[in-house]
Design a protein that fits this description.
binds 6-O-phosphono-alpha-D-glucopyranose; alpha/beta; six-stranded parallel β-sheet; globular; four-stranded antiparallel β-sheet; single chain; binds manganese (II) ion
Protein backbone atom coordinates (compact mmCIF):
# COMPACT_ATOMS: atom_id res chain seq x y z
CA UNK A 1 0.00 0.00 0.00
CA UNK A 2 1.51 3.30 -1.10
CA UNK A 3 0.68 6.65 0.43
CA UNK A 4 1.78 9.84 -1.26
CA UNK A 5 1.94 12.98 0.87
CA UNK A 6 1.78 16.26 -1.03
CA UNK A 7 3.26 19.02 1.08
CA UNK A 8 5.60 16.27 2.27
CA UNK A 9 8.02 18.79 3.73
CA UNK A 10 5.22 20.18 5.90
CA UNK A 11 5.46 20.43 9.64
CA UNK A 12 2.58 18.03 10.42
CA UNK A 13 3.90 15.14 8.32
CA UNK A 14 5.56 13.44 11.35
CA UNK A 15 2.12 13.27 12.99
CA UNK A 16 0.80 11.29 10.03
CA UNK A 17 3.88 9.08 9.89
CA UNK A 18 3.62 8.50 13.64
CA UNK A 19 0.05 7.26 13.17
CA UNK A 20 1.19 4.90 10.40
CA UNK A 21 3.88 3.50 12.68
CA UNK A 22 1.20 2.40 15.12
CA UNK A 23 -0.56 0.32 12.44
CA UNK A 24 0.79 -3.21 12.18
CA UNK A 25 -2.18 -4.94 10.58
CA UNK A 26 -2.39 -6.60 7.18
CA UNK A 27 -3.06 -4.07 4.43
CA UNK A 28 -1.28 -1.22 6.19
CA UNK A 29 0.73 1.45 4.38
CA UNK A 30 4.20 0.10 3.60
CA UNK A 31 5.53 2.85 1.33
CA UNK A 32 5.39 6.60 1.77
CA UNK A 33 6.33 9.08 -0.95
CA UNK A 34 6.84 12.63 0.23
CA UNK A 35 6.43 15.32 -2.38
CA UNK A 36 7.25 18.97 -1.88
CA UNK A 37 8.30 21.88 -4.07
CA UNK A 38 11.09 22.65 -1.56
CA UNK A 39 13.88 20.07 -1.27
CA UNK A 40 15.24 21.62 1.94
CA UNK A 41 11.94 21.15 3.73
CA UNK A 42 11.78 17.55 2.51
CA UNK A 43 15.24 16.90 3.99
CA UNK A 44 14.21 18.33 7.35
CA UNK A 45 11.04 16.25 7.59
CA UNK A 46 12.70 13.10 6.26
CA UNK A 47 15.20 13.47 9.11
CA UNK A 48 12.40 13.51 11.68
CA UNK A 49 10.70 10.49 10.09
CA UNK A 50 13.96 8.51 10.07
CA UNK A 51 14.32 9.02 13.81
CA UNK A 52 10.67 8.05 14.37
CA UNK A 53 11.14 4.90 12.27
CA UNK A 54 14.25 3.76 14.12
CA UNK A 55 12.17 2.28 16.94
CA UNK A 56 10.11 0.04 14.60
CA UNK A 57 10.92 -3.06 12.58
CA UNK A 58 8.02 -2.69 10.16
CA UNK A 59 8.26 1.07 9.58
CA UNK A 60 6.98 2.16 6.15
CA UNK A 61 9.74 3.01 3.66
CA UNK A 62 10.07 6.69 2.89
CA UNK A 63 11.16 8.30 -0.35
CA UNK A 64 11.23 12.05 -0.93
CA UNK A 65 10.97 13.80 -4.27
CA UNK A 66 10.24 17.17 -5.85
CA UNK A 67 8.80 15.42 -8.93
CA UNK A 68 5.01 15.34 -8.61
CA UNK A 69 4.39 12.69 -11.27
CA UNK A 70 6.94 10.35 -9.75
CA UNK A 71 5.36 10.79 -6.33
CA UNK A 72 1.86 10.06 -7.64
CA UNK A 73 2.54 6.98 -9.74
CA UNK A 74 1.26 3.83 -8.07
CA UNK A 75 -0.32 5.69 -5.15
CA UNK A 76 -3.27 4.05 -3.38
CA UNK A 77 -3.85 7.12 -1.21
CA UNK A 78 -2.81 10.70 -1.69
CA UNK A 79 -2.78 13.09 1.26
CA UNK A 80 -2.78 16.67 0.18
CA UNK A 81 -1.62 19.24 2.72
CA UNK A 82 -0.02 22.02 0.73
CA UNK A 83 0.34 25.72 1.47
CA UNK A 84 0.37 27.79 -1.70
CA UNK A 85 2.37 30.97 -1.07
CA UNK A 86 3.81 29.61 2.17
CA UNK A 87 3.39 31.11 5.62
CA UNK A 88 4.64 34.40 4.23
CA UNK A 89 1.52 34.38 2.07
CA UNK A 90 -0.63 33.59 5.10
CA UNK A 91 0.85 36.52 7.00
CA UNK A 92 0.22 38.81 4.01
CA UNK A 93 -3.40 37.62 3.81
CA UNK A 94 -3.89 38.66 7.42
CA UNK A 95 -2.07 41.97 7.13
CA UNK A 96 -3.95 43.17 4.05
CA UNK A 97 -7.34 42.25 5.50
CA UNK A 98 -6.62 43.80 8.90
CA UNK A 99 -5.52 47.05 7.25
CA UNK A 100 -9.09 47.19 5.88
CA UNK A 101 -10.52 46.38 9.30
CA UNK A 102 -11.70 42.89 8.32
CA UNK A 103 -10.60 39.43 9.34
CA UNK A 104 -7.65 37.82 7.60
CA UNK A 105 -7.80 34.31 9.08
CA UNK A 106 -6.62 31.62 6.64
CA UNK A 107 -10.01 29.93 6.39
CA UNK A 108 -12.56 32.53 7.48
CA UNK A 109 -13.58 35.81 5.87
CA UNK A 110 -11.34 37.83 3.54
CA UNK A 111 -8.19 35.86 4.39
CA UNK A 112 -9.91 32.58 3.57
CA UNK A 113 -11.05 33.96 0.22
CA UNK A 114 -7.57 35.20 -0.68
CA UNK A 115 -6.03 31.89 0.32
CA UNK A 116 -8.74 30.00 -1.57
CA UNK A 117 -8.19 32.05 -4.74
CA UNK A 118 -4.50 31.18 -4.60
CA UNK A 119 -4.95 27.54 -3.76
CA UNK A 120 -7.85 26.38 -5.94
CA UNK A 121 -5.99 26.54 -9.30
CA UNK A 122 -3.07 24.56 -7.83
CA UNK A 123 -5.39 21.99 -6.21
CA UNK A 124 -7.28 21.51 -9.46
CA UNK A 125 -4.01 20.89 -11.33
CA UNK A 126 -3.05 18.30 -8.74
CA UNK A 127 -6.46 16.65 -9.06
CA UNK A 128 -5.92 16.39 -12.82
CA UNK A 129 -2.50 14.79 -12.31
CA UNK A 130 -4.00 12.28 -9.89
CA UNK A 131 -6.83 11.47 -12.31
CA UNK A 132 -4.24 10.74 -14.97
CA UNK A 133 -1.49 8.99 -13.03
CA UNK A 134 -3.30 7.30 -10.13
CA UNK A 135 -6.94 7.11 -11.23
CA UNK A 136 -7.88 4.60 -8.54
CA UNK A 137 -6.28 6.50 -5.68
CA UNK A 138 -8.29 8.10 -2.91
CA UNK A 139 -7.36 11.68 -2.19
CA UNK A 140 -7.60 12.89 1.39
CA UNK A 141 -7.52 16.65 1.45
CA UNK A 142 -6.23 18.57 4.46
CA UNK A 143 -5.33 21.67 2.48
CA UNK A 144 -7.14 24.71 3.80
CA UNK A 145 -9.61 26.20 3.24
CA UNK A 146 -10.47 22.49 3.34
CA UNK A 147 -14.16 22.53 2.36
CA UNK A 148 -13.62 24.83 -0.61
CA UNK A 149 -10.49 23.04 -1.82
CA UNK A 150 -12.22 19.65 -1.51
CA UNK A 151 -15.14 20.94 -3.59
CA UNK A 152 -12.73 22.25 -6.25
CA UNK A 153 -10.99 18.87 -6.44
CA UNK A 154 -14.31 16.98 -6.45
CA UNK A 155 -15.14 18.62 -9.78
CA UNK A 156 -12.30 16.52 -11.22
CA UNK A 157 -12.22 13.50 -8.91
CA UNK A 158 -15.85 13.11 -7.83
CA UNK A 159 -16.26 11.22 -4.57
CA UNK A 160 -12.63 10.01 -4.71
CA UNK A 161 -11.61 13.12 -2.83
CA UNK A 162 -12.59 13.42 0.82
CA UNK A 163 -11.79 16.45 2.97
CA UNK A 164 -10.79 16.19 6.60
CA UNK A 165 -10.44 18.51 9.55
CA UNK A 166 -9.76 17.71 13.16
CA UNK A 167 -11.76 20.51 14.75
CA UNK A 168 -15.16 18.71 14.79
CA UNK A 169 -13.49 15.60 16.24
CA UNK A 170 -11.72 17.70 18.86
CA UNK A 171 -15.00 19.41 19.77
CA UNK A 172 -16.86 16.09 19.96
CA UNK A 173 -14.15 14.63 22.15
CA UNK A 174 -14.08 17.61 24.51
CA UNK A 175 -17.88 17.63 24.88
CA UNK A 176 -18.02 13.86 25.41
CA UNK A 177 -15.29 14.02 28.02
CA UNK A 178 -17.01 16.84 29.89
CA UNK A 179 -20.18 14.75 29.94
CA UNK A 180 -18.32 11.64 31.08
CA UNK A 181 -19.27 9.87 27.84
CA UNK A 182 -17.09 7.70 25.61
CA UNK A 183 -16.45 9.71 22.41
CA UNK A 184 -16.05 6.50 20.42
CA UNK A 185 -19.53 5.16 21.16
CA UNK A 186 -21.46 8.44 21.46
CA UNK A 187 -23.37 9.71 18.42
CA UNK A 188 -22.17 13.20 17.64
CA UNK A 189 -24.70 15.29 15.77
CA UNK A 190 -22.42 17.81 14.05
CA UNK A 191 -23.24 19.53 10.73
CA UNK A 192 -22.29 22.49 8.59
CA UNK A 193 -19.41 23.47 6.34
CA UNK A 194 -15.72 23.15 7.24
CA UNK A 195 -14.93 25.54 10.12
CA UNK A 196 -18.60 26.55 10.10
CA UNK A 197 -20.52 23.82 11.89
CA UNK A 198 -22.46 23.20 15.07
CA UNK A 199 -22.57 20.31 17.51
CA UNK A 200 -26.30 20.04 18.14
CA UNK A 201 -26.43 16.92 20.24
CA UNK A 202 -24.44 14.08 21.70
CA UNK A 203 -26.44 10.92 22.12
CA UNK A 204 -25.56 8.01 24.33
CA UNK A 205 -27.89 5.03 24.03
CA UNK A 206 -30.38 7.20 22.14
CA UNK A 207 -30.47 9.92 24.82
CA UNK A 208 -29.22 13.39 24.03
CA UNK A 209 -26.79 14.52 26.71
CA UNK A 210 -26.24 18.04 25.40
CA UNK A 211 -29.11 19.66 27.35
CA UNK A 212 -27.45 18.45 30.57
CA UNK A 213 -24.21 20.17 29.53
CA UNK A 214 -25.93 23.38 28.46
CA UNK A 215 -27.60 23.61 31.85
CA UNK A 216 -24.32 23.24 33.71
CA UNK A 217 -22.38 26.54 33.83
CA UNK A 218 -19.38 25.04 35.55
CA UNK A 219 -19.07 22.21 33.03
CA UNK A 220 -19.36 24.71 30.16
CA UNK A 221 -16.43 26.62 31.63
CA UNK A 222 -14.23 23.55 31.56
CA UNK A 223 -13.41 23.26 27.83
CA UNK A 224 -12.21 25.52 25.05
CA UNK A 225 -15.44 26.17 23.12
CA UNK A 226 -17.42 26.57 26.34
CA UNK A 227 -15.03 29.29 27.49
CA UNK A 228 -14.72 30.98 24.09
CA UNK A 229 -18.46 31.44 23.54
CA UNK A 230 -19.62 31.61 27.16
CA UNK A 231 -22.56 29.72 28.73
CA UNK A 232 -25.16 32.36 27.96
CA UNK A 233 -24.55 32.42 24.21
CA UNK A 234 -24.33 28.62 24.05
CA UNK A 235 -27.72 28.32 25.76
CA UNK A 236 -29.15 30.86 23.35
CA UNK A 237 -27.92 28.80 20.41
CA UNK A 238 -28.82 25.47 22.00
CA UNK A 239 -25.68 24.07 20.35
CA UNK A 240 -21.89 24.23 20.61
CA UNK A 241 -20.38 25.93 17.57
CA UNK A 242 -17.07 25.02 16.01
CA UNK A 243 -14.34 27.23 17.47
CA UNK A 244 -13.98 29.03 14.11
CA UNK A 245 -17.49 30.46 14.56
CA UNK A 246 -15.95 32.67 17.22
CA UNK A 247 -14.83 34.85 14.31
CA UNK A 248 -18.47 35.30 13.29
CA UNK A 249 -20.24 35.64 16.62
CA UNK A 250 -17.56 37.89 18.10
CA UNK A 251 -16.23 39.41 14.90
CA UNK A 252 -15.56 42.89 16.20
CA UNK A 253 -13.60 41.60 19.18
CA UNK A 254 -11.57 39.06 17.20
CA UNK A 255 -10.63 41.60 14.53
CA UNK A 256 -9.52 44.01 17.25
CA UNK A 257 -7.55 41.31 19.07
CA UNK A 258 -5.81 40.41 15.82
CA UNK A 259 -5.03 44.07 15.14
CA UNK A 260 -3.65 44.59 18.62
CA UNK A 261 -1.70 41.35 18.77
CA UNK A 262 2.08 41.58 18.73
CA UNK A 263 2.01 39.29 15.71
CA UNK A 264 -0.78 37.69 13.72
CA UNK A 265 -0.96 33.88 13.70
CA UNK A 266 0.54 33.70 10.22
CA UNK A 267 3.39 36.06 11.08
CA UNK A 268 4.13 34.13 14.26
CA UNK A 269 4.13 30.79 12.46
CA UNK A 270 6.23 32.21 9.64
CA UNK A 271 9.01 33.06 12.10
CA UNK A 272 8.55 30.00 14.28
CA UNK A 273 8.56 27.54 11.39
CA UNK A 274 11.46 29.24 9.58
CA UNK A 275 13.47 28.82 12.76
CA UNK A 276 12.61 25.10 12.86
CA UNK A 277 13.72 24.46 9.27
CA UNK A 278 16.85 26.54 9.85
CA UNK A 279 17.70 24.57 13.01
CA UNK A 280 17.22 21.34 11.10
CA UNK A 281 19.88 22.45 8.64
CA UNK A 282 22.48 22.74 11.40
CA UNK A 283 24.57 19.62 11.91
CA UNK A 284 24.00 17.95 15.24
CA UNK A 285 20.38 19.12 15.66
CA UNK A 286 18.32 16.25 17.16
CA UNK A 287 15.44 16.03 14.64
CA UNK A 288 12.64 14.49 16.68
CA UNK A 289 13.24 16.47 19.87
CA UNK A 290 13.45 19.72 17.91
CA UNK A 291 10.24 18.94 16.06
CA UNK A 292 8.41 17.99 19.29
CA UNK A 293 9.43 21.20 21.02
CA UNK A 294 8.31 23.28 18.02
CA UNK A 295 5.00 21.41 17.88
CA UNK A 296 4.30 21.99 21.59
CA UNK A 297 4.95 25.72 21.13
CA UNK A 298 2.68 25.83 18.10
CA UNK A 299 -0.18 24.03 19.87
CA UNK A 300 0.08 26.19 22.98
CA UNK A 301 -0.40 29.38 20.96
CA UNK A 302 -3.26 28.09 18.76
CA UNK A 303 -6.11 30.66 18.58
CA UNK A 304 -4.35 32.85 21.13
CA UNK A 305 -5.96 36.04 19.75
CA UNK A 306 -9.44 34.52 20.18
CA UNK A 307 -8.71 33.59 23.76
CA UNK A 308 -7.43 37.12 24.28
CA UNK A 309 -10.66 38.54 22.78
CA UNK A 310 -12.75 36.30 25.03
CA UNK A 311 -10.58 37.12 28.07
CA UNK A 312 -10.05 33.46 28.94
CA UNK A 313 -6.27 33.33 29.28
CA UNK A 314 -3.97 30.43 28.54
CA UNK A 315 -4.90 27.24 26.78
CA UNK A 316 -6.02 24.48 29.10
CA UNK A 317 -3.77 21.43 29.42
CA UNK A 318 -6.65 19.16 28.30
CA UNK A 319 -7.31 21.20 25.17
CA UNK A 320 -3.72 21.04 24.01
CA UNK A 321 -4.09 17.60 22.53
CA UNK A 322 -5.18 18.34 18.98
CA UNK A 323 -8.29 16.75 17.49
CA UNK A 324 -5.87 14.21 16.10
CA UNK A 325 -5.97 15.00 12.41
CA UNK A 326 -3.60 12.13 11.77
CA UNK A 327 -6.00 9.80 13.60
CA UNK A 328 -8.90 10.90 11.42
CA UNK A 329 -6.75 10.38 8.33
CA UNK A 330 -5.66 6.90 9.41
CA UNK A 331 -9.19 5.85 10.42
CA UNK A 332 -10.47 7.01 7.04
CA UNK A 333 -7.74 5.12 5.16
CA UNK A 334 -8.32 1.94 7.13
CA UNK A 335 -12.07 2.10 6.58
CA UNK A 336 -11.62 2.50 2.83
CA UNK A 337 -8.67 0.15 2.28
CA UNK A 338 -9.79 -2.64 4.61
CA UNK A 339 -13.51 -2.06 4.79
CA UNK A 340 -13.20 -1.34 8.52
CA UNK A 341 -16.57 0.36 8.70
CA UNK A 342 -16.82 3.42 10.83
CA UNK A 343 -18.48 6.81 11.17
CA UNK A 344 -16.39 9.96 10.78
CA UNK A 345 -17.16 13.65 10.32
CA UNK A 346 -15.85 14.42 6.84
CA UNK A 347 -16.09 16.89 3.98
CA UNK A 348 -18.02 15.25 1.18
CA UNK A 349 -20.55 16.11 -1.50
CA UNK A 350 -23.91 16.91 0.01
CA UNK A 351 -26.28 14.69 -2.00
CA UNK A 352 -29.36 16.01 -0.24
CA UNK A 353 -28.00 15.80 3.31
CA UNK A 354 -28.57 19.53 3.89
CA UNK A 355 -31.66 20.30 1.86
CA UNK A 356 -30.78 23.98 1.47
CA UNK A 357 -27.70 23.12 -0.60
CA UNK A 358 -27.38 21.40 -3.97
CA UNK A 359 -26.09 17.85 -4.37
CA UNK A 360 -22.51 18.81 -5.34
CA UNK A 361 -21.88 21.27 -2.51
CA UNK A 362 -19.19 19.91 -0.20
CA UNK A 363 -20.45 19.88 3.40
CA UNK A 364 -18.97 18.70 6.71
CA UNK A 365 -21.21 16.01 8.17
CA UNK A 366 -21.07 12.59 9.83
CA UNK A 367 -20.39 9.94 7.19
CA UNK A 368 -20.57 6.20 7.17
CA UNK A 369 -17.28 5.00 5.67
CA UNK A 370 -16.54 1.65 4.06
CA UNK A 371 -14.61 0.28 1.07
CA UNK A 372 -16.89 2.25 -1.26
CA UNK A 373 -15.94 5.56 0.33
CA UNK A 374 -17.73 8.07 2.54
CA UNK A 375 -21.52 8.25 2.57
CA UNK A 376 -23.14 11.18 4.36
CA UNK A 377 -25.66 10.19 6.99
CA UNK A 378 -29.12 11.79 7.13
CA UNK A 379 -29.24 14.67 9.62
CA UNK A 380 -31.91 16.98 11.02
CA UNK A 381 -32.24 20.31 9.19
CA UNK A 382 -30.25 23.33 10.38
CA UNK A 383 -32.06 26.18 12.16
CA UNK A 384 -32.67 29.25 10.01
CA UNK A 385 -29.80 31.33 11.44
CA UNK A 386 -27.34 28.55 10.56
CA UNK A 387 -28.91 28.12 7.11
CA UNK A 388 -28.22 31.82 6.60
CA UNK A 389 -24.51 31.52 7.35
CA UNK A 390 -24.01 28.22 5.57
CA UNK A 391 -25.72 29.32 2.35
CA UNK A 392 -24.03 32.74 2.36
CA UNK A 393 -20.59 31.19 2.77
CA UNK A 394 -21.27 28.46 0.21
CA UNK A 395 -22.32 31.20 -2.25
CA UNK A 396 -18.97 32.90 -1.61
CA UNK A 397 -17.11 29.62 -2.17
CA UNK A 398 -18.87 29.24 -5.50
CA UNK A 399 -17.73 32.72 -6.53
CA UNK A 400 -14.16 31.75 -5.61
CA UNK A 401 -14.40 28.61 -7.76
CA UNK A 402 -15.88 30.66 -10.59
CA UNK A 403 -13.14 33.32 -10.32
CA UNK A 404 -10.44 30.62 -10.28
CA UNK A 405 -11.88 29.15 -13.46
CA UNK A 406 -12.63 32.37 -15.34
CA UNK A 407 -9.82 34.63 -14.09
CA UNK A 408 -12.41 37.37 -13.67
CA UNK A 409 -11.61 40.22 -11.28
CA UNK A 410 -15.30 41.14 -11.06
CA UNK A 411 -16.15 37.64 -9.84
CA UNK A 412 -13.35 37.84 -7.27
CA UNK A 413 -14.78 41.15 -6.05
CA UNK A 414 -18.17 39.44 -5.77
CA UNK A 415 -16.62 36.68 -3.62
CA UNK A 416 -15.25 39.20 -1.10
CA UNK A 417 -18.24 41.54 -1.22
CA UNK A 418 -20.81 38.80 -0.56
CA UNK A 419 -19.00 37.45 2.49
CA UNK A 420 -20.91 38.17 5.73
CA UNK A 421 -17.66 39.39 7.36
CA UNK A 422 -16.77 41.91 4.64
CA UNK A 423 -18.80 45.03 5.28
CA UNK A 424 -18.51 47.07 2.08
CA UNK A 425 -18.22 46.54 -1.65
CA UNK A 426 -15.49 49.18 -1.67
CA UNK A 427 -13.52 47.15 0.85
CA UNK A 428 -13.94 44.10 -1.41
CA UNK A 429 -12.56 46.03 -4.40
CA UNK A 430 -9.55 47.25 -2.46
CA UNK A 431 -8.94 43.74 -1.09
CA UNK A 432 -8.81 42.25 -4.58
CA UNK A 433 -6.32 44.93 -5.69
CA UNK A 434 -4.26 44.62 -2.50
CA UNK A 435 -4.08 40.84 -2.71
CA UNK A 436 -3.28 40.89 -6.41
CA UNK A 437 -0.44 43.33 -5.84
CA UNK A 438 0.97 41.12 -3.08
CA UNK A 439 0.59 37.61 -4.48
CA UNK A 440 2.10 36.57 -7.82
CA UNK A 441 -0.21 33.52 -7.59
CA UNK A 442 -3.21 35.83 -8.14
CA UNK A 443 -1.89 37.27 -11.39
CA UNK A 444 -4.44 35.14 -13.24
CA UNK A 445 -7.25 37.44 -12.07
CA UNK A 446 -6.57 39.67 -15.06
CA UNK A 447 -9.90 39.50 -16.92
CA UNK A 448 -12.65 42.03 -16.35
C1 LIG B 1 -6.98 23.23 13.47
C2 LIG B 1 -7.74 23.46 12.18
C3 LIG B 1 -6.85 23.25 10.98
C4 LIG B 1 -5.60 24.08 11.11
C5 LIG B 1 -4.91 23.75 12.42
C6 LIG B 1 -3.65 24.54 12.65
O1 LIG B 1 -6.68 21.90 13.61
O2 LIG B 1 -8.84 22.63 12.08
O3 LIG B 1 -7.57 23.57 9.83
O4 LIG B 1 -4.75 23.82 10.03
O5 LIG B 1 -5.79 23.97 13.47
O6 LIG B 1 -3.87 25.88 12.83
P1 LIG B 1 -2.61 26.85 12.92
O7 LIG B 1 -3.20 28.19 13.18
O8 LIG B 1 -1.76 26.33 14.02
O9 LIG B 1 -1.92 26.77 11.59
MN1 LIG C 1 -9.44 22.49 9.95
Amino acid sequence: MKLTILGGGGFRVPLVYGALLGDHAEGRVTRVALHDVDAGRLDAVAGVLAEQAAAYKDAPDVVATTDLDEALRGADFVFSAIRVGGLEGRAADERIALAEGVLGQETVGAGGIAYGLRTVPVAVDIARRVAELAPDAWVINFTNPAGLVTEAMSRVLGDRVIGICDSPVGLGRRVAKTLGADPASAWIDYVGLNHLGWLRGLRVGGHDQLPRLLADTEALGSFEEGRLFGPEWLRTLGAIPNEYLHYYYFNRETVRAYQEAKQTRGAYLHTQQARFYEEMRQPGTPPLATWRRTLAEREATYMAANREAAGIGERDEDDLESGGYEKVALALMRAVARNERTTLILNVRNRGTLSVLDADAVVEVPCFVDADGAHPVAVAPLPLHAVGLVTAVKAVEREVLDAAESGSRAVAVRAFALHPLVDSVNVARRLVDGYRAEHPGLGYLNRP
